[in-house]
Specification:
- There is one protein chain.
- The chain has 8 helices and 10 strands.
- It has 279 residues and is an alpha+beta fold.
- It has 2 domains: 33 residues, no CATH class; 238 residues, 3-Layer(aba) Sandwich (L-fuculose-1-phosphate Aldolase).
- The strands form 2 sheets. The chain has an 8-stranded mixed beta sheet, with helices on both faces.
- Helix 1 crosses helix 8 and helix 5 packs across helix 7.
- The N and C termini lie close together (10 Å).
Length: 279
């Protein structure tokens, strides 16, 4: 069973340690490393288990609202297909066996439940436009919704917010409208050509990553950063972190491996409390 393992790689020279600052204190010679796989079936099982776990974590954090919200992950073999949560199934009860495999025509090719049309329209457009994106996350979180109504980017007012410094966008197109039309989804994707996150006007947050873990953690962190900025703006005028500090902090804490690793404590918790997610 794929469970709560944390992956490390042994470092013998500086050449195979691309970010020496990621070396764990007290563990010289080891850096964090994403897992490798013997075959595509093993990688698919890994991605699906993390998807089911991330959905349960979203539910636990209160990101579920009715039937809204979805996380997708690209299939490692059928790269124009993605796995997604079924329409109308609780985040908190998600199991690996519940997940749907959907192609870019919106057809469910594995699974028996329907897919959320908005999930297909938006996520298929993002996955098609950005081949480097392995996973994408969206939910109607309260603070993300509230912040999206302002139509402004996130400011670098905390260390955590610096993760997104000059690495996210605000999308005004289709703002507030339910995105069911394929062309509308493509229009949104065109406005999100780079970066790890987007704030969709009057709608909420979208995050992407090279793994489910990364995309899910960016969503969690961005929602909380939105909450922090809303609170700070309500209290007064927040002071911005200097450009060079904000950029440095993003470079150190906003890369893919950092996002993947930040998710690991959440993954460990959900494995211990919800082992049935592997069913």
């Amino acid at each position: 069973m794929l469970s709560e393992k944390v992956y490390y790689a042994h470092v013998t020279t500086t050449e195979n340690a691309p970010n020496l600052e990621s070396i764990a204190m007290g563990q010289p010679g080891y850096v964090l490393a994403m897992p490798t796989f013997a075959n595509v079936e093993e990688e698919r099982a890994y991605r699906k288990s993390r998807l089911a776990g991330a959905l349960r974590i979203f539910g636990r954090l209160g990101f579920g609202e009715g039937v809204a919200g979805h996380i997708t992950v690209r299939d490692p073999e059928l790269t124009d297909h993605f796995w997604v949560n079924p329409f109308g199934l609780s985040f908190r009860h998600m199991r690996v066996s519940d997940l749907l495999l959907v192609n870019h025509h919106g057809e469910v090719v594995h699974g028996t439940m329907p897919v959320n049309r908005a999930a297909f329209v938006i996520h298929s457009a993002i996955h098609s436009a950005r081949p480097e994106v392995i996973a994408a996350a969206h939910a109607h979180s309260v603070h993300g919704k509230a912040f999206s109504s302002l139509g402004i980017p996130l400011d670098p007012i905390t260390q955590d917010a610096c993760i997104f410094y000059n690495d996210h966008t605000v999308i005004a197109e289709q703002g507030g409208a339910v995105v069911f039309d394929v062309e509308a989804g493509k229009e949104m994707a065109e406005k999100f050509p780079t970066g790890k996150a987007a704030i969709h006007l009057n709608h909420g947050l979208f995050t992407v990553g090279s793994s489910v873990e990364e995309a899910a953690f960016w969503f969690l962190s961005m929602d909380r950063s939105c909450q922090a900025q809303l609170l700070a703006m309500a209290a007064g005028t927040p002071k911005l972190i200097k450009h060079e500090y904000a950029q440095y902090t993003r470079e150190q804490t906003g890369h893919s491996l950092a996002g993947w690793f930040q998710f690991q404590p959440l993954w460990q918790e959900i494995c211990r409390t919800d082992p049935e997610l592997f069913d």
